[in-house]
Specification:
The chain is mostly beta strands. Helix content is 3%, strand content 41%. The chain has two helices and 30 strands. The radius of gyration is 19 Å and the shape is globular.
């Protein structure tokens, strides 16, 4: 069995209510280093060896807790109970209408509401298992939080493996029927955080269909072919190639197989030679090019601007609770919500020992 580095834990900051937030550092035998905090169960940093031997942070993050408390970008956090949008913040289940908190221009429900899972304190338990180290985060969302029904117990586990994969598994159980759609909202830049835009990255998405949206980014119910559109990434294509047609991507792609762990995306960055491959059990992947990012300071004295990072948010279809032909989004008391996503890194100075 290959040796595994222990998880390092250190104080990251103190919340206004006096709770201590810790940062957990995972390091594999190849020198890949992931850092996580138990505020928002957030991935704050993912450093990867370059060809020159230095570490390149390939995700956007901050140096301090205070910055995480006040930013608006959802850097690296877990999104819930329901990621993405619910139209008008409303859904109907068994002839009862539920009205959730509306925080997207006060018209729609976005990323779990005004205080989603990205803004809560999670219990954390670091561990070592087989050839990997990880952190298990748990949170109990009370009945009525952001107007969702039911007490929801959530477990999110990050594992950094020696094959250079960062694996995220999601589990949830409820005592009342409730919609659940969990994801991670990391912004990636394989050239390095704060090192320009992601428009010259090369992307391949293993999806034949996408979900067209209205002006508020709410799906209109269609599942449309990508053929002859700017959304076609079935062959490796530079992200910025067709951006002039749509002014940035923020769209969900429908993946072919459900529940099986399948390859959803591949991203290549030419300057360092890093490749990111995304595998998931989810039925969809939201590809977002950071269209709402603006000039803003981030970790290590760097700064970002428009299109400085991309997101690969594996998830159920947006607004699925209001579209009967979309994959089921209601979790019942006798069920267990289970999903998994793996972000696999290669290239650059990476090797597998």
């Amino acid at each position: 069995m290959t040796a595994v580095h222990p998880c390092n834990k250190q104080l990251f900051g103190i919340l206004p209510n006096g709770q201590s937030v810790f940062q957990y550092t995972l390091t594999n035998v190849n020198g890949v280093q992931a850092q996580l905090i138990n505020y928002g169960a957030t991935l704050t940093s993912l450093k990867v060896p370059s060809r020159q031997g230095n570490l390149v942070d390939v995700v956007l993050g901050f140096d301090t807790l205070d910055e995480y408390l006040h930013h608006k970008f959802y850097f690296g956090c877990i999104i819930g109970r329901v990621s993405n949008r619910i139209a008008r913040g409303k859904f109907r289940y068994q002839n009862k209408c539920y009205e959730l908190a509306c925080n997207a221009n006060n018209q729609h429900h976005l990323h779990g509401g005004k205080k989603g899972f990205d803004k809560v304190f999670w219990q954390a338990r670091p561990f070592i298992k087989n050839d990997a180290s990880g952190v298990e985060f748990t949170y109990r969302s009370p009945d009525g939080e952001e107007s969702y029904p039911g007490n929801l117990s959530v477990q999110v586990t990050y594992v950094l493996a020696n094959d250079n994969a960062l694996k995220i598994s999601y589990t949830a159980q409820t005592d009342k029927a409730t919609p659940v759609n969990l994801t991670n909202h990391t912004y990636w830049n394989l050239a390095g955080a704060g090192m320009g835009t992601i428009l010259d990255h090369h992307l391949q998405l293993f999806a034949d269909h996408y979900l067209p949206v209205d002006d508020d980014l709410i799906p209109n119910g269609q599942i449309a072919t990508v053929t002859n559109t700017a959304y076609d990434f079935r062959d490796l294509k530079i992200i910025g190639k067709d951006m002039h047609q749509i002014n940035g991507y923020d769209v969900c792609y429908a993946l072919a197989e459900k529940q099986l762990l399948k390859r959803a995306a591949r991203v290549f960055e030419p300057s360092h030679g890093f490749t990111l491959e995304v595998y998931t059990t989810q039925p969809g992947i939201q590809f977002y090019t950071g269209n709402s990012l603006y000039k803003y300071p981030i970790a290590n004295g760097k700064s970002i601007a428009h299109w400085s990072g991309f997101c690969m948010e594996t998830q159920n279809f947006p607004d699925a609770v209001n579209h009967a032909h979309f994959p089921e989004s209601i979790l019942l008391p006798q069920q267990t919500y289970q999903q998994e996503t793996s972000y696999n890194l290669s290239g650059g100075g990476l090797q597998i020992i």
